[in-house]
Amino acid sequence: MTSTTEQSAELAELSATTLLRFATAGSVDDGKSTLVGRLLHDSKSVLTDQLEAVEAASARRGQDAPDLALLTDGLRAEREQGITIDVAYRYFATPRRRFILADTPGHVQYTRNMVTGASTADLALVLVDARNGVVEQTRRHAAVAALLRVPHVVLAVNKMDLVGYEEKVFAAIAEEFTAYAGELGVPEITAIPISALAGDNVVEPSAHMDWYGGPTVLEHLETVPVSHDLTGCHARLPVQYVIRPQTAEHPDYRGYAGQIAAGTFRVGESVTVLPSGRTTTVSGIDLLGEPVDVAWTPQSVTLLLEDDVDISRGDLIVPSGDAPATTQDVAATVCHVADQPLTVGQRVLLKHTTRTVKAIVKEIPSRLTLDDLSQHPEPGLLVANDIGRVRIRTAEPVALDAYADSRRTGSFLLIDPADGTTLTAGMAGESFATAKATVAADEDGWDF
């Protein structure tokens, strides 16, 4: 048996490893769930009872070997159809790093689920069937990864065993995808030839592709540089709750609680409350019931202010010298996720951090065409899975950062006020990191 001391040492070592959030994406039947299952199985991250359940389910379906895709496809409909429908999250760890994995669906009607899975990802793992090459859904997933500013993209060319492990097949697909993703401004692209079913280059190097000298999928995931240090970013605290106990012990206590979205706050610092623009000074910071001098993201804290400023849920506390501009006119790129279309003149709710305001869609200047990265001007509406530009007028000012500066405070949702359905995920400011894409700008100059 493992001693308590050894267990403590293992826990300390695990807590010291970095965390990588990554999402898988790709077209239907490209093998995403099989890759995830192989990754979990070969990295010894599958419990015995889980593996036994998969083996039993595979045997009932007449399969000789365990279907590792069943490790992630947990819904009955997913197992019956052999597809992924919802985002499946898996947590696993190796001695070098901890992982949160989002296995997203491949069908075009579930592209919106990738937006959910990739919105917090540090890396997107895009699969391509070596027999089919880059298809429309591949381009769509690359565009979503670029829009969401996912810093690392891995192209996994799967099913290499079905094309004889030919280097020229892999090279052609990698060249086409890299050129397309580069036009979108994806900062880093790594191509890896694999066979998820056979296990080639997933965890162990392949004996069939000696022409490939790069890392395996797991090796790349363990070594890709990621930084979760947001302390140097624009400091932002969306207020979630105003704490006023009004007890005999704390008769005059008034604190403003929330999770720090980015940056660092210090006692004595001058801050501004948005959208009112009132300025005051941080007189105290409570963290877990104890006073501290400094707090940083992603800590949940309570700020105490010197002046009695009118603050409520939805307000944003920022350093006075680093405040975003407030506006009622929002220009953004959006991914439409609802079955009902988004139309010009539609009344919506805009939810930004903890603030929700009424808004109206004033214009839809363009919709992105994925084939050549041009835009279709003035489409009039966006349907499910469309990517486009919108102009929105809000009833009250909102303090949006550019999404390129902050994925947390530069993003928002559009919500149906009638039933609360999420309609659209929005990214404020410029759409892609570069402007190399083919453009057919309209007269107002709205382009991608």
Strands, helices and their partners?
Blueprint: H1 4-16, E1 18-26, H2 32-42, H3 48-60, H4 76-81, E2 88-94, E3 97-103, H5 111-118, E4 123-129, H6 136-147, E5 152-158, H7 167-184, E6 189-193, H8 217-223, E7 237-238, E8 241-243, E9 255-259, E10 264-266, E11 270-274, E12 278-287, E13 290-292, E14 294-296, E15 300-305, E16 316-319, E17 326-336, E18 342-343, E19 347-352, E20 355-368, E21 375-377, E22 381-382, E23 387-399, E24 411-415, E25 422-428
Parallel strand pairs: 1-3, 1-4, 4-5, 5-6
Antiparallel strand pairs: 2-3, 7-16, 8-9, 9-15, 10-14, 11-12, 11-16, 12-13, 12-15, 17-23, 17-25, 18-22, 19-20, 19-24, 20-21, 20-23, 24-25
What does this 3D model show about the protein?
The chain has 448 residues and is α+β, with helices and mostly antiparallel strands. It is 20% helix and 33% strand. A hairpin with a 6-residue loop joins β24 (411-415) and β25. The longest helix has 18 residues, at 167-184.
User: Can you tell me the overall shape?
Assistant: globular
Low-confidence stretches: 10-16, 75-85, 435-448
Q: Report the mean per-residue pLDDT as an integer.
A: 83
User: How many helix segments?
Assistant: 8
- What's the end-to-end separation, in Å? 60 Å
The main sheet comes to: 8 strands, antiparallel
Helix content: 10-25%
What percent strand? 25-35%
Structural class: alpha+beta
Radius of gyration: 24 Å
Number of strands: 25
